[in-house]
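Internal tracking record. Fields below are filled automatically when a chain is submitted to the structure queue. Please do not edit lines marked as system-generated. If the sequence contains nonstandard residues, flag them in the REMARKS field before resubmitting.
Queue: standard
Priority: normal
Entity type: single polypeptide chain
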Amino acid sequence: MRATPTGFAPSSVSTAEMSGAVDPANREPLLLDAMLGKLATYLRVCGYDAAYALDDGVEDDDRLRDLAAAEGRRLVTRDRALAASTPGAVVVTERDVEGQLRELRDAGFDLTPAARPTRCGACNGRLEPVDAGDPRPDYAPDEGDAPVWRCVDCGQCFWTGSHWDDVRATLRRL
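SYSTEM-GENERATED OUTPUT FOLLOWS
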């Protein structure tokens, strides 16, 4: 199947995006419904501000529409009726995340991974670099081994390790 955008006009892909230097500021903010939590994680690796409805405890269609409008987000959903009643919404039909990613790619979404982590995989917060000498959790790489970023909202740390590589490999297979 194919993602069906309502009123979606894909933007052109810049040379910087093609080279992997994706500017997350150019990504349209998204709201993913309760059925798309894993997809949100992949979109965050691609630099999207991808809010997940269940992070805010939102499941009701009217609340989803209101939240998307209030925050200026494009709704991504598996619910065809919800998409049809929400301006600019995109409906995905596949159940597995790779199929969903293919649908979004085919609908014009740029799924180039960001050059570095920019959004928290857990809460979608913005990431900032952990400076040299700042404390790091035990699970994070030692200073000098790999750059580390911390979420400004929840404090979780991220780096481009094996999980990042796995997500990038999945995106390359599309």
